[in-house]
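Hypothesis: this fold can be encoded by more than one sequence.
Test: take the structure tokens below, design a sequence, compare later.
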């Protein structure tokens, strides 16, 4: 089969909901050439965990600028630490979708950890590759590769790896992380049996410096010229490192009980019996080569040590699924058995009497159902799961949404979420060589979260609003101890996005307003967050070989008492002394040449002329002015 790099034509939805042609493969004259008359861009499919299908997107849009980071996500509601590969503070929260099971914890360590819901599957007519490269800070880079191919129309495999290493500007801030995934999917010729799955192996390592010392903070905020080299500033921790490792095998397969030739009513020939299996293990290590009792308090050891905790889930789920006009779509019922084991090899600190059992383990049975229906212009999606009993992972989750599509540009959405689950395991049981970091909170209750959300998408504005109420909200207090709030948290949030175009110029705006009406002492967010980008886009040179996009982005969030970062727990904790909130300006020049997108960005140019008051968390400065380069390159063999 003949193949040329100019043979794919695609149409992609932009951030304002409108469609634009794939400028990778066509010019302004909209010349469209198909692969041997049979293959086009819709054959290069990306299939999500929920089996939603999109296509490999080779366009250069403003959304690509927002997602060009090591997470490959728009981090509008996240406040990055100075070095890529480090954690993020939260500027906003989303409680629309909730986990049904408690996790190991160490939430600050999980931003770059890929869950099974983050894994995509592929279906492509020719071998397909994507490479992302981005420079790091001082030394290092991010490199992410995708290679996927179909051995036949029904059998696909893919290999993906993301490696990150970045030294950082401050002492002891090295990030070294790797995410390996291999995915597969297969369907028999008669389409009665289908299987898909993946293997994921991830290790996320960070040096932890505890932020700047009090003296160094003064030198930073006063802009002492002798310390413009940030490596000269003293930090609170030396020889401290944390590592999160995870290994997961996931498989889902199903079998159609009746073929289309069976004499039974054709409305039920799609009746499927299926099985989903998940085996995931995680471990978290905190390592110190020498004690830092002045920072974490007294310890029961006199030299370096390693705290290690492990967690393992094995989940088996059986389901029965069918689609029929009688249920207006697809209906699935399922039941599952989950075995869990979290804990330590023994009691790490025998001088502390609060630990009676160093493990949380058991098993639980769950059941539930899913319903996805389409009624004219309405789409309904409902998901219910219940884990009864009195065990540590008992709880329930209910989510339903209704979507009304008026036309291709306008849609309305409403959703209700009700979730009850145990706090994460590290809030229930934690051990360390440091005396103050040992607890066993068996009396902690389930956190109950209720969320109502509404959304509007149109060519004029994208608007989302939600109200969330949380009972027994679990947090870490200003002494880094887990607590449950006696007062319900009530959180209101409204987020709007639109884009104005003036010829070849555009102004993209995203504004977030939020208010905590109760529970302000334990749940804190800035009132306002905004991002405004003024940019220019056009083809350059005769024949349009290069598409240019350049502009400036203004970011701002109002002052609030942002959570502090605890590197031992890898959790954010309440603090009552420091407020942060400031503007930043970033300048970017992006270009597209055929299948390659090139990115050049000057981060935080405002640091050259504004006060040195920019922090990601108390004691942790945000990054200074820096220029970084990178690219994303797709090719199809």
């Amino acid at each position: 089969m003949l193949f040329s790099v100019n043979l794919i034509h695609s149409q992609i939805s932009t951030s304002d909901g409108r469609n634009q042609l794939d400028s990778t493969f066509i010019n302004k004259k909209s010349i469209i050439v198909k692969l041997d008359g049979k293959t086009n861009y819709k054959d290069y499919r990306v299939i999500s965990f929920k089996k939603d299908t999109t296509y490999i997107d080779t366009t250069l849009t403003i959304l690509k600028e927002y997602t060009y980071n090591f997470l490959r996500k728009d981090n509008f509601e996240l406040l990055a630490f100075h070095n890529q590969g480090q954690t993020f503070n939260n500027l906003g929260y989303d409680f629309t979708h909730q986990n049904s099971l408690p996790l190991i914890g160490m939430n600050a360590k999980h931003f770059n950890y890929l869950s099974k819901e983050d894994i995509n599957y592929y279906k492509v007519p020719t071998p397909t590759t994507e490479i992302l490269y981005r420079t790091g800070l001082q030394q290092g880079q991010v490199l992410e590769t995708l290679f996927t191919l179909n051995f036949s129309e029904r059998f696909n495999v893919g290999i993906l790896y993301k490696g990150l290493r970045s030294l950082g500007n401050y002492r002891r801030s090295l990030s070294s992380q790797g995410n390996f995934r291999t995915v597969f999917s297969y369907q028999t010729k008669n389409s009665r049996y289908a299987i898909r799955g993946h293997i994921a192996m991830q290790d996320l390592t960070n040096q932890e410096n505890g932020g700047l010392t009090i003296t160094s903070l003064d030198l930073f905020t006063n802009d002492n010229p002798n310390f413009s080299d940030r490596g000269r500033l003293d930090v609170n921790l030396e020889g401290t490192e944390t590592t999160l490792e995870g290994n997961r095998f996931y498989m889902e397969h199903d079998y159609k009980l009746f073929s289309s030739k069976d004499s039974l009513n054709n409305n039920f020939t799609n009746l499927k019996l299926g099985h989903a299996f998940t085996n995931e293990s995680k471990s978290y290590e905190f390592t110190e080569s020498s004690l830092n009792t002045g920072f974490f308090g007294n310890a029961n050891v006199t030299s370096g040590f390693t705290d290690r905790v492990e967690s393992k889930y094995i989940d088996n789920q059986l389901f029965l699924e069918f689609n029929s006009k009688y249920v207006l779509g697809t209906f699935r019922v399922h039941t599952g058995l989950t075995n869990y084991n979290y804990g330590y090899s023994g009691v790490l600190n025998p001088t502390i009497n609060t630990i009676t059992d160093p493990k949380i383990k058991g098993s639980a049975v769950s059941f539930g159902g899913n319903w996805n229906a389409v009624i004219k212009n309405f789409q309904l999606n409902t998901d219910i799961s219940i884990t009864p009993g009195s065990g540590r992972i008992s709880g329930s989750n209910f989510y339903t949404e209704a979507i009304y599509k008026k036309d291709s540009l306008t849609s309305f959405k409403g959703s209700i979420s009700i979730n009850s689950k145990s706090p994460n395991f590290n809030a229930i049981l934690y051990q360390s060589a440091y005396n103050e970091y040992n607890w066993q909170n068996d009396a902690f209750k389930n956190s109950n979260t209720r969320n109502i959300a509404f959304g509007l998408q149109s060519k004029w504005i994208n608007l989302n609003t939600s109200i969330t109420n949380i009972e027994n909200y679990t947090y870490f207090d200003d002494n880094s101890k887990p607590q449950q709030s006696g007062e319900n948290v009530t959180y209101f949030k409204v987020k709007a996005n639109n884009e104005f175009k003036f010829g070849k110029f555009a102004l993209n705006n995203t504004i977030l307003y939020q208010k905590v009406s109760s529970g302000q002492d334990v749940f804190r967010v800035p009132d306002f967050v905004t991002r405004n980008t003024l940019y220019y886009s056009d083809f350059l040179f005769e024949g349009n070989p290069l598409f240019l996009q350049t502009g400036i982005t203004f970011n701002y969030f109002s002052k609030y008492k942002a959570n502090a970062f605890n590197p031992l727990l890898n959790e954010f904790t309440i603090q009552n002394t420091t407020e942060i909130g400031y503007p930043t300006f970033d300048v970017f020049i992006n270009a597209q040449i055929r299948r390659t997108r090139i990115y050049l960005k000057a981060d935080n140019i405002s640091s050259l002329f504004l006060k040195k008051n920019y922090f990601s968390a108390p004691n942790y400065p945000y990054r200074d002015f820096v220029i970084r380069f990178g690219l994303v390159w797709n090719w199809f063999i």
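The chain is about 5% helix and 50% strand. The CA atoms of residues 344 and 467 lie 38 Å apart.
Hypothesis status: open.
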